[in-house]
Amino acid sequence: LRLASNLRSSCLSLPSGLDPLRPLKRQEDLLPLSSLLASPARPPASWVPETSVPGSAPGPTPRSRSRPDTELRSELPSLFQLQPEQLDCGAAHLQHPLSILQPLKSSPVFRAPGLTSVAVASANNYTVVFLGTVNGRLLKVNLNESMQVVSRRVVTVAYGEPVHPVMQFDPADPGYLYLMTSHQMARVKVAACDVHVTCAACLGAADAYCGWCALETRCTLQQDCANATQPHFWTSTSEGPGRCPAMTVLPAEIDVRREYPGMILQISGSLPSLSGMQMACDYGKDIRTVARVPGPAYGHQIAYCNLLPRRQFPPFPAHQDHVTLEMALRVNGRNIVSANFTIYDCSRMAQVYPQAACTRCLSAPWPCFWCTQQHTCVSNQSRCEASPNPTDPQDCPQILPLSLVPVPTGGSQDILVPLANAASFHGAALECSLGPEDTFEATWLNASVVRCNQVAVSGVASPRGPGRPSSPPCPLLGSHPPSPSNLTPALRLQLPLVHNLDPKMGPKAGGTRITIHGSDLHVGSELQVLVNDTDPCTELVRTETSITCTVPGGAQAAPVPVCVRLERRGCVRGNLTFWYMPNPVITAISPRRSPVSGGRTITVAGERFHMVQNVSMSVHHIGREPTLCKVLNATLITCPSPGALSNASAPVDFFINGRAYADEVAVAEELGDPEEVPRGSRFRLDYLPNPQFSTAKREKWIKHHPGEPLTLVIHKEQDSLGLESHEYRVKIGQVACDIQIISERVIHCSVNESLGAAEGQLPITVSGRGGADSGPMRTRRSKTLGTCSVSVIPKSHPLGLPSSHHLVGSRPPLPLRSLPLRFWVNILKNPQFVFDIEKTDHIDACLSVIAQAFIDACSISDLQLGKDSPTNKLLYAKEIPEYRKVVQRYYKQIQDMTPLSEQEMNAHLAEESRKYQNEFNTNVAMTEIYKYAKRYRPQIMAALEANPTARRTQLQHKFEQVVALMENNIYECYSEA
Predict the structure, then answer these.
(1) Is residue 222 situated within a structural domain?
(2) Which helix (H) or strand (E) holds 746?
């Protein structure tokens, strides 16, 4: 069991001489600790409260099993000097104290890295373990009764997103499992049985949930099969493929010339009793005959079936003496089991095998007999004449091998043909046939030799087309090709040659484009480039002197031969070798944030990039078109981030030389079964809103005098992109504005050259490096003498407090130190932050007056007014003293209220959290609060130390524990406890 990530408890201070990392072996060493971590990076196995484990069996809670404090205290070694309050370690955070009475030891039955969650179920004598992974996969491991892994499967739930530790089976339907990832919740079916289409595949998959539904002939969950609880209707995978329904047909071979009363079907395997069911034998093409079952016999069932009528026998295929049919047993309108039988015809032997009819007849797999006198094959031996007939293929007449002497074209010679087993037809009239038309007279010399008289070669026909001789008419005697003098003089012999290839190496993943240099490479109509003698190159482009193609992937890093083959013949002369090298490795990408419009330059670090010819970057799910990257050197690649459809975090894929990059470390740790193609990308991009910019002046136009440098001050809204100074560019028209200062909220830039004298509009663009869309502003030249103005486009900004305000050590630019005041003034002046309204100039002026009155009412400084004071301060000057009294009375009432106890405050906060738990991302909020607390850690610690209530409730100690746990620093936790 892993320590639950949400359990955070107090730490004990250990006396000197005791190693906090030493494993506790003796029973008296076992303390009610939440955990003893083996290293700062990875906690060892620890207990969690049973009530916290989903799906745990009912029983006593850990509190009921833990020993009293007095008993623990009496058994502790003398080296432990614990204070009474230390015995309640974790009591302030956990409902159940943690303790280990007897440690359990067991060998793991399955190991895999990157596991994040576990859910266990029992089904059909199997134990099924569902394991979530860090890369968004669900691994299902099936264990038999001996707790041995019999199969495993992988389902990709959300690629690249870790699975949440909590997984829960659907209470209404245990055939589904609920799980969560960073951005979604999924209801996953525990088994995909329907992917198995045969009984053997279904039961051989060893999936605990799947089984074969016999009368429905499909692989299903048990609850999806009708009458599954009755015997033999549903077969579990635990019974094995040997229990699949099977059928044997008797007789298995049918003589086309015999009559058969019917066929016997012997049915075995797991099938319910077929008695009383509607049955038929299905031969296909809507041909069926009646079937009947007399009853079971010796552990199997017997059925009888009429053979299909002779007129419906299928025709024999050409050059074949038999035809194979499939017959299925049809029960209640569905074919549940099938078997093959053969219909044969012995008399077709002489037609199908005219030159080896006797041998084929006697070696047939069905009973056939050879009649020597009739020279025919029959299925009934009584049809042969009463003469010696061969019974073995070796007894058939045969022509033995002979040797021939070549003769000139047009000449003739006598050929002696030796025979074997020819005594039965010695003296019969014979002819020598050489080809379909050439026959010659034959003479018996004795019972074993025949002479073919004056066999002549008719010559070779003239070439059909330039340089293409026809096939010789008599291959028995051989022939000679035409002499070169008969060829067309204009033709010449061209022999392709290869010289070298470039590049000579590439990743073993494939995709490298190589160029083979040579001469006469355009010769021939068919060309192949084979790598390692078997794998063809693709996307071939060839010219007279070069061939370009894409190398396939290799099995391992090693040199392999490259062969250029023309017209399916041998390789073109020339030794070519291509070296498969280890694949490029991507180790990191930076930065990992991008505006939703894309275009930010992402630096990719890694190794062996010198073999990369092209690389592109794409984003899963929310990404737009992939972007092309640039290889800088062997260790660096830069890519513009692709645009995205929404603000979210998404996994990133790289395609190197057209092949999807799979991180070899991730692939080596793959959890899935071999059937799944590994996807190794472990990098993600966080897409955030585009940065927003506006001019620093409230006026809508900025005046500029000709001849002076134009200085532009641009306000930048807060964002989380973390753009560096070199990533900003400002342009006015086509003129670059030199950036002088970049702060958190302001950009200063200047243009020293002339912007042009023509009147018109000049677009001003502020962008991140790579062309991130930031919302352009526009400038135009006014008809007023010598003025240049800038108009502001942005009409809405994200709601947020100024980043310069801090609760601790605050030095805001305005004399306002009240957080509510700063907050409400922002809302009063900019209601469009929270309401969907259009703020006109008139409304904006009125809101400014109201906001100023609110500021003055909350201010503790004296109101200093004069003739130069702004109008919005003068309008409510008389009412400000009364307003201040209202504000003072409000805070006085708060001060006079009865202080809340810690328990009341915790209960109130818990209730408020429960009300809005589904409306806010608490993890993000807690992270932001922690960043603030960490930054001002000394000041917070000093304030807690000075507060009596904080000292009494040990808030300082708890705060330090939170910091240690957030930083995963157990050493600091021990040292400060």
Answers:
(1) no
(2) strand 746-751
